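User: I'm new to structure prediction. If I give you an amino acid sequence, what do you actually give back? Let's try with this one:
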Amino acid sequence: MNVSDTTLPASDPAAKSPAAADAAAAAHRLADDRGDQDHLGRLEPAVSREERHDEVGDAEQQHDERRADRERSSRGVELQMREVRRNQRRQENDIKTLKWLISYFATDAEFAHLRHLAERKDTVYDFGESGTPGQDPARAERLKREFREFARELRSLREPGLVQMRDGRHISDMKPKGDLIDYLEVTRRGHSYVDVRLQDERPPTDRS
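Assistant: Good question. You get back a string of structure tokens that encode the predicted 3D arrangement of the chain. For your 208 residues, that looks like this:
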């Protein structure tokens, strides 16, 4: 048999050396790696876009939350300022009322006369008739003093304009026994004084 007849053609893969086969396998692996890298490279922009979208969404949510906190805080401050202004107005009104009451101050006895006249009740007075036969001199003197004090209290109401005389009468015209309505009437200022003082004397829970 001729040796040349048994020699394989040079193009037959079986004729390649082991080194050539290893080189070919390495080339295939390299190509596969490059393909994977290209695929990952195409995926990376999409992942980055999703991450950026999530970051933008988180930032917007945080911004909205901060804005909501500021709005709540602003409303809270506004409510506090309104309450402060209401308290200031109440204090100013209380001060004005106090000044008004002081400027037209009336004692408890004087205010009782004024209130009775304003309400038109309990206006009848009686300090006895002077010179009544059989009258105790000490008692008669005491009634005279009380009547003079009574007249002084009425003058104290008349001077600041809380009451005025009826039909040109005078306090000196008053008899020791009679009805205040026949001599005096309460002015508008006097009625206002009664209203304010009664409001001021009323317990806080009863005030409207």
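You can read the tokens as a compact description of the fold. Here is one thing that stands out. The radius of gyration is 55 Å.
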